[in-house]
Amino acid sequence: MKIMKERSAPHLLTVLQILNNRMALSTDHRLKFLNMKKGYEGEIYFDRLLKDCIESECLVLNDLLFLINDSIVQIDSLVITGSGIYLYEIKNYEGEYIHKTDLLRSSTGYELTNPLDQLNRTVILLKQQLRFWGFNLAVKSFVVYVNSSFVLYELKSDLPVVLSGQIPSHLSQLNQSRPLKKEHHYLANKLLQVNLEKSPYNLRLPDYSFDTLKKGITCISCGSYDILLTQRLSSCRMCGHQLSLTEMITSQVEHFNILFPTKQITVQTIVQWCGEDLSVKTIRRVLKSRYQMMGGSKSRYYV
Ligand SMILES: [Zn+2]
User: Fold this and answer.
1) Which residues are within 5 Å of ligand 1 (an ion), measured at CB?
2) Which residues of the chain, if any, have pLDDT below 50?
3) Among 3.40.390, 3.30.70, 3.40.91, 3.40.50, what is the CATH number of 2-194?
């Protein structure tokens, strides 16, 4: 199994994660953040199962985004095998739902759109694109519910739905595939070429400013501000995560840079950003060692 495109956390999730530590998010943004985080965790879990179960030769492309016939197509996981293409829409839902044609309904009456609709639309568009490129490959698609606490009642057995407990046996079927040919590698590269790096949707971020965000050093693992700093090491008192002091400061600078990509990185700003927990001398040493120095002595900044 060869991973042609790794999965990485969506930019919006990273931003919301940092902001969630440093300000009170609105209910909408907090919900969006928690949903995205959960969805991403589900995808990572699926990736791990894929790695564990697939022994045959295949090409894996994660997190694809295309524009096909003016429509946005998003694919969580695409596996190219010698016997065809497998598309996976991954859901990390919890709770008990009844499977209806166009939606999933919880016992309390809460409704979710049925991911099969979205998946069917994706398959139609992808097949169009493949035909346009001259490929004649079978496409199989599945909605995968990765959470073991998710129960789906009234699910017809002929639907392309894989529940948590069925994932390993489903994936092991892919091991029966024929060997890959040159055209499969060609297709993988073709898909990578047309993949969009950024979603064309403008997702609205919360309003925030440097002055109003909470300052201080936060643990990159759990977000806690309860960090023990020694000369060389930083350790989180909440989760025990340890980093060298240099790595810790660099992570705080990176967070600053993600939230404020157009603001200059200066010693004073980073001292302030870290909540004055670290000396000017220490911050300067790390910035000098990790970034390129720009500007004169009076207007020094780092890139
Ligand atoms: Zn921690």
Assistant:
1) 219, 221-222, 224, 236, 238-239, 241
2) none
3) 3.40.91
